[in-house]
């Protein structure tokens, strides 16, 4: 599995860009929470910093790679991820609200991927009952050390895809 690392402050409302690096510690892309404007950011503080939720990934030239945002309609929550290069959209929804920690399902026209969320261990991304990627956040000295691993067998190899989704649905949640 290919390994990617980044750190994040121990706060969910941080908007500073963070750099995602590969195993050789080469900077690959940046990612950050984006509110769009200060009004949304101020309102979000009143709503526990979880209502206006968007993460964006940018390449080294600050060109957008992926975006993931929370969508709340009629009391139902889901997330939408967009590949900014191809404009391909992915819908992420909860599966099994009855459980304490429900699974999530990523869908588009071509495939279905499941996310099994774990609070203190690896959260896994699965296709056809095979783990194709995993993500983990470990709190070290009041900073989260995030680690992402992607299998060579994964249909999507772009770490920006997994990073923006992980930040939205695993780190912050709905």
Gist?
The protein has 174 residues and is mainly beta.
Helix and strand layout, with pairings?
Blueprint: E1 2-9, E2 18-22, E3 27-33, H1 38-46, E4 54-58, E5 64-73, E6 76-83, E7 89-95, E8 103-107, E9 112-116, E10 123-127, E11 130-140, E12 143-150, H2 159-172
Antiparallel strand pairs: 1-2, 1-12, 2-3, 3-4, 4-5, 5-6, 6-7, 7-8, 8-9, 9-10, 10-11, 11-12
What does this structure look like?
With 174 residues, this protein is mainly β. The protein has one domain (2-172): Porin, CATH 2.40.160. Helices cover 13% and strands 48% of the residues. The chain has two helices and twelve strands; from the N terminus they run E-E-E-H-E-E-E-E-E-E-E-E-E-H. The chain has helices at residues 38-46, 159-172, and strands spanning 2-9, 18-22, 27-33, 54-58, 64-73, 76-83, 89-95, 103-107, 112-116, 123-127, 130-140, 143-150. It has a twelve-stranded antiparallel beta barrel with strand order 1-2-3-4-5-6-7-8-9-10-11-12. The protein is globular, with a radius of gyration of 15 Å. The chain starts with a strand and ends with a helix.
